[in-house]
C-alpha cells in the first residue's frame, strides 16, 4: 500500500485540543473529505498539512516525503512542501491579472516551459479570453477556476481545498463540483477537501473524516460513514433523523437479529456480519434512514416483523420528495413526532388517493435497513 | 384593487385639508388610483423637483465659515506676495535659495531613513504580537502628539555634545551631531518618522495574510512575497505615509531650532528662514516669499499624490471590489 499522505496532528487551540490522525492510501481513492461543523478543527488540520500552521506535536508526510515530524524536529517550509493550497476566499492576488496569478508559482521555471504550462491550464480551466482581467472583474465561478489553475500550475503533490464552493451559487457549485471530481481523477492528485455540506461531501468523497471538537469521530468510505455511522454523534452530524435509543430484549443468534425495546416501540433489527451481536440488555441506538421506511394504508396486509400504525402529523414538500412526520399510536401531538419518513412525489400522490378520513397509516421497517449503533 | 380605491376615496372625503403640494384635487387623485401605473408611463426621469433640505443650509453655512478661515490666510499670502512683487525680488536671494535647497535635501534624507529603517519595524508590528507590544505602539504615537520643543530637548540631552550618546560620539570619534545639518535630519526624523511607520503598519495589517500563505505555498521566497504581494497591495498606504512624513519634516520648526540651531546654509530650513526673515533684515516680504514657496511645494506634492493614488496606483482596488468575508 502506498500512502498518498498521512498526518498526525496534536495542537492546542483556543476552544479545544486538536487531536487527529488522517491518511489516504492509494487503494482507498483520491479524495478525502473533512466533514464537520464550523470550528471543529478542519481548517487548522489543513493548515498543518500545508505548513501554514505548526502542530504542537505530530507527523505529516506527503507521498513518500516526510514534511513534518516533531520527533525529528523536521519542519519543511511551506514554500518547499509542494502543496496546492486553496483557502476559503480563494486569495487571488488582486493586483495581478489572471495570467499573472496562474503563473505566480512558475517563476523558477524556464520561460518556454512556464508559458506552455500556463496555456495548458488556461485551456483546462476554460479561462480563454480572460487572461488579461483582474480578479475583481471575474465572476465567483471564474475566480474559483483561476484559483484552481494557480494552485495546480507548479505541479503540487497534493491539493488542499478549504470549502472551495462555499461562496458560490447553487448552480455553479454543482458544475464545479463535477469538474473537481473529474479533475482529481484525471490528474491523479490526492485531494483533501473541507466542507460542511452533506451533499457535497457525499458527491466528492472517496473517504470521509467526520470532525467534531477537534477529533475525528469516524474516517471511512463514504457509504460506510453515511449508512453505518459508528457513533450516535456521527449519525447526528450527518443529519440522520430517526435515532431511537433502547436496550436489547432478546437476540436471535442464527439469523443475527435482535429485538430492541425503545421508548417508541419494540423493533427487530438485523446485525451485520462485521458487527458483534449485542447481548441482552445491551444499550443500542437504532438509526433508520427516512427513505427506508415504507408507509401503507391500514387495509394493506404486511408480513414484516416491524409493523406499526400511527398518524401523519405533518409534512414538508421538498421538490421531488416529501418528508412526513409520523407519530406512533394514538397520540396526536403536532409538536413531537416519532419518525421522519421520506416518500417520492409519486408515492405521495398515491397516498393522497388512498387517504382515509382518520389519517391512520401503517409503517413497516425492514430489519436489514436498520443500522445498529452501540450505546 | 377596487377595494383599495374606494377606501382611499372615502378617506379623502373625511380629510379635506391635505397638505399643499400633494394632489389635493379629488378627481385627479381618484383617477390616479383607478388605472394601474405601467413602466411605460414613467419613461421620463426627473418628474419630481428636488428640494433642498433646510438643514443642509445650516451645514453649508457652518462649512463655508470653516473653509474660509482655512483658505483665506493662504490666499492672503499669495495675493500679497504677488501684489508687492516680493516673490520676484526675494526668490533669488541667497538666503531663500539656501533655505529651499536645505529643506529639500534634509526632508529627502529624512524620508529615506524613515522608509529604510521604518519599514521593517512597521512589518514586525503588523505581523507579530509580543510582550510590550502596546507600550511600543504607544511610544510610536508620542512623537506625533508631543510639542516639538519637547522633542528638541530630548534630542539635545541624548545626542547633544553633552548628551548620553553625543558625549560618547564626541570622545570616541570626535563627531559632533548637534547644530549640524545631520541634526536637522535627526530632528525631522524624530517627529516625522512615526507617521510613516504608523501608516505602513496599518497598510501591512490590511493585507490578507492568506495571500502571503498562498504565495508561499506556490514556492515563493519570503523576499519575493514581500515585493510581489505585500508591497504592491499596500503601496497606497506606504505612499500616503511617505507623504505625511515628508510634509511633517518640511514643516519641522521647534525641534530643529532647539537641537540644530538656526544657521544659514547649514541648519536654516524654510520654516526657520521664515522666522529669521521676520526677525531680521528681510522683513515681512521675505518671510511671505518663503511661506508662499512652502505652500506651493506642499500643495503640488499633495495633489500629485492624490491624483496618483486615484488613477494607476491602485487600479485593482477601485470601490467596486467584491469583499469576500472571511469566516471567523
What does this structure look like?
The complex is a heterodimer of chains A (375) and B (328). Chain A has nine helices and 21 strands. Chain A has helices spanning 42-50, 98-102, 111-124, 140-152, 170-187, 198-204, 222-227, 232-237, 345-354, and strands at residues 3-12, 17-25, 31-35, 57-62, 65-69, 74-75, 83-86, 158-162, 191-195, 207-212, 215-221, 242-252, 257-262, 266-270, 283-288, 293-297, 307-318, 321-328, 339-344, 360-365, 370-374. In chain A, strands 7-8-9-3-10-11 form a six-stranded mixed β-sheet, with helices on both faces. Chain B has 328 residues and is an all-alpha fold. The longest helix of chain B has 34 residues, at 94-127. Chain A binds chain B through residues 38, 50-52, 77-91, 93-95, 104-105, 107-108, 134-136, 150-151, 153-154, 156, 167, and chain B through 208, 210-211, 213-221, 224, 228-229, 232-233, 315-318, 320-322, 324-327.
The count of DSSP E runs of length 2 or more, i.e. the number of strands of chain B, is: 0
Morphology of chain A: elongated
- Compute the average pLDDT of chain B: 82
Amount of beta strand of chain A: 35-45%
Q: Pairing-aware structural class of the strands and helices of chain A?
A: alpha+beta
Backbone CA Rg of chain B: 31 Å
Please, how many helices of chain B?
A: 14
Amino acid at each position: 500500500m502506498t500512502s498518498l499522505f498521512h498526518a498526525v496532528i496534536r495542537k492546542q487551540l483556543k476552544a479545544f485540543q486538536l487531536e487527529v490522525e488522517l491518511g489516504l492510501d492509494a487503494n482507498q481513492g483520491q479524495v478525502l473529505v473533512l466533514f464537520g461543523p464550523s470550528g471543529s478543527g478542519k481548517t487548522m488540520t489543513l493548515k498543518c498539512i500545508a505548513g501554514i500552521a505548526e502542530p504542537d506535536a505530530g507527523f505529516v508526510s506527503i507521498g513518500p516525503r516526510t514534511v513534518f515530524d516533531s520527533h525529528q524536529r523536521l519542519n519543511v517550509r511551506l514554500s518547499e512542501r509542494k502543496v496546492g493550497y486553496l483557502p476559503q476566499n480563494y486569495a487571488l492576488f488582486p493586483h495581478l491579472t489572471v495570467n499573472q496569478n496562474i503563473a505566480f508559482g512558475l517563476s523558477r521555471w524556464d520561460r518556454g516551459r512556464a508559458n506552455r504550462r500556463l496555456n495548458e491550464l488556461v485551456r483546462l480551466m476554460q479561462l480563454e479570453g480572460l487572461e488579461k482581467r483582474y480578479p475583481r472583474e471575474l465572476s465567483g465561478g471564474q475566480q474559483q477556476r483561476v484559483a484552481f489553475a494557480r494552485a495546480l500550475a507548479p505541479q503540487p503533490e497534493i491539493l488542499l481545498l478549504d470549502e472551495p464552493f462555499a461562496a458560490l451559487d447553487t448552480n455553479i457549485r454543482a458544475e464545479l463540483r463535477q469538474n473537481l471530481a473529474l479533475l482529481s481523477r484525471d490528474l491523479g492528485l490526492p485531494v483533501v477537501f473541507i466542507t460542511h455540506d452533506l451533499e457535497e461531501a457525499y458527491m466528492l468523497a472517496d473517504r470521509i473524516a467526520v470532525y467534531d471538537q477537534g477529533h475525528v469521530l469516524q474516517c471511512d468510505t463514504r457509504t460506510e460513514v453515511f449508512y453505518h455511522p459508528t457513533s450516535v454523534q456521527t449519525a447526528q452530524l450527518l443529519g440522520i433523523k430517526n435515532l431511537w435509543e433502547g436496550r436489547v430484549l432478546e437476540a436471535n443468534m442464527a439469523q443475527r437479529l435482535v429485538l430492541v425495546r425503545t421508548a417508541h416501540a419494540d423493533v427487530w433489527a438485523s446485525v451485520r456480519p462485521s458487527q458483534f451481536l449485542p447481548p441482552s440488555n445491551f444499550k443500542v441506538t437504532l438509526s433508520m434512514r427516512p427513505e427506508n421506511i415504507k408507509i401503507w394504508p391500514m387495509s394493506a396486509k404486511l408480513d414484516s416483523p416491524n409493523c406499526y400504525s400511527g398518524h401523519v402529523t405533518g409534512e414538508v414538500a421538498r421538490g421531488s420528495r416529501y418528508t412526513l412526520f409520523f407519530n406512533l399510536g394514538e397520540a396526536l401531538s403536532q409538536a413531537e413526532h416519532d419518525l421522519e419518513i421520506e416518500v417520492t412525489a409519486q408515492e405521495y400522490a398515491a397516498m393522497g388517493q388512498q387517504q382515509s378520513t382518520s389519517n391512520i397509516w401503517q409503517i413497516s421497517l425492514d430489519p436489514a435497513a436498520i443500522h445498529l449503533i452501540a450505546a | 384593487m377596487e377595494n383599495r380605491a374606494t377606501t382611499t376615496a372615502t378617506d379623502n372625503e373625511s380629510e379635506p385639508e391635505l397638505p399643499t403640494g400633494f394632489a389635493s384635487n379629488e378627481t385627479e387623485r381618484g383617477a390616479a388610483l383607478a388605472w394601474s401605473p405601467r413602466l411605460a408611463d414613467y419613461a421620463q426621469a426627473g418628474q419630481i423637483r428636488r428640494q433642498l433640505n433646510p438643514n443642509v443650509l445650516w451645514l453649508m453655512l457652518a462649512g463655508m465659515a470653516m473653509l474660509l478661515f482655512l483658505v483665506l490666510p493662504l490666499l492672503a499670502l499669495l495675493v500679497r506676495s504677488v501684489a508687492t512683487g516680493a516673490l520676484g525680488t526675494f526668490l533669488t536671494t541667497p538666503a531663500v535659495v539656501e533655505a529651499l535647497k536645505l529643506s529639500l535635501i534634509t526632508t529627502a534624507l529624512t524620508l529615506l531613513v524613515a522608509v529604510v529603517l521604518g519599514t521593517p519595524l512597521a512589518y514586525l508590528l503588523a505581523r507579530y504580537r509580543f510582550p510590550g507590544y502596546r507600550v511600543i505602539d504607544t511610544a510610536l504615537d508620542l512623537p506625533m502628539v508631543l510639542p516639538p520643543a519637547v522633542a528638541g530637548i530630548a534630542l539635545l540631552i541624548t545626542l547633544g555634545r553633552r548628551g548620553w550618546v553625543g558625549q560618547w560620539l564626541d570622545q570616541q570619534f570626535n563627531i559632533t551631531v548637534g547644530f549640524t545639518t545631520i541634526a536637522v535630519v535627526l530632528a525631522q526624523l524624530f517627529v516625522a518618522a512615526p507617521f510613516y511607520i504608523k501608516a505602513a503598519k496599518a497598510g501591512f495589517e490590511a493585507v490578507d495574510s492568506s495571500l502571503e500563505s498562498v504565495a508561499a505555498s506556490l514556492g515563493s521566497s519570503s523576499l519575493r512575497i514581500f515585493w510581489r504581494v505585500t508591497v504592491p497591495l499596500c503601496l497606497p498606504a506606504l505612499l500616503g505615509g511617505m507623504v505625511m512624513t515628508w510634509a511633517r519634516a518640511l514643516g519641522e520648526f521647534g525641534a530643529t531650532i532647539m537641537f540644530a540651531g538656526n544657521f544659514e546654509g547649514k541648519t536654516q530650513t524654510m520654516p526657520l528662514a521664515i522666522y529669521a526673515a521676520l526677525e531680521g533684515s528681510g522683513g515681512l516680504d521675505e518671510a511671505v516669499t518663503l511661506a508662499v514657496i512652502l505652500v506651493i511645494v506642499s500643495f503640488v506634492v499633495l495633489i500629485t499624490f492624490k491624483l496618483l493614488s486615484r488613477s494607476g496606483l491602485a487600479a485593482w482596488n477601485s470601490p467596486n471590489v467584491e469583499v469576500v468575508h472571511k469566516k471567523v
